[in-house]
Amino acid sequence: MTSLMAKMAVELTMRMGKKAIIVLDAYFAVGPVFSIVKQSVDDNGHRLLHVITMAKSNVVGYEPPPPSAGKRGRPRTYGAKRKLMDLFETKVFEQMSLEIYGQSKTVSVLCLDLIWRPIQEKVRFVLVCDGDQRFILMCSDLELPAADIIRAYSYRFKIEVSFKVLKHLIGAFYYRFWTSVWPRAGRQTKSDLSAIDNPRSQRLVREAIGALEAFVNFGCIATGILQILALNCHQSIWKKYQGWLRTVTSTIPSEEVVQAVIQMEYYHNFRFFRNSAIYRIIMSKSKKSSEDEMPLAA
User: Fold this and answer.
1) Which of 130, 135, 196, 225 lies 20 to 30 Å (CA to CA) from residue 157?
2) Residues 6+ apart with CB under 8 A from 171
3) In terms of domains, do 268 and 241 share one?
């Protein structure tokens, strides 16, 4: 799963031909992700893609190996070992003021470039103390300042808001596409699709997966349309909104407000939509369903 995501990011970056940063949680703090992302380079050999992720609590870094003393034997690969969580007890942190979530706050930061054993290369580790919270960020770009790394990781939480909209407002994950030929999940909740050798079963599985992906993609498109309307038509939306909000925190309405206005306008002007293509599709499906349920004459 982690490798697949990294390969998709590399492919997208290569097609765009522009530099990018992907921000991930601790689940993706594994060697294969950093190794795969390193493959994204332009024609001049410059890196196009870097990764920022939350480190796991047991993460360990190594100092560069000491210079060779001329003794016999293979030279050392790593220097002193550093358990990064133990470094929070030191007093060498730097105070830094950052603008995060629209608010200015002061955090304590320690930035170190250490060798990470899974890729045998240096990674930039940023240790952050935010009040009682302590966490470690990892970045493959050794030139990116610690403040930018923290700020970039803070943007990741906006994704959670998008997931909430997709799930609870749009219903993009409430799909009901399935097929009986799909293998049952095992003890590790994984289905072994390699065991399907019947051409018909393979086709049904592909069609089910295609329906799932299409349904979710349509939900993402719908969310994007709501956001575009919120940005470009916010004054008209607020004028037509008939709901009540205890506190209006922004001039840009939320996706839920935009959806409420669209629903109200649609039902209010439904009679004007009778000649539209969407109306004809809906009515054709409705008539077909009614005909299927009609009892046969004796």
Assistant:
1) 225
2) 219
3) yes
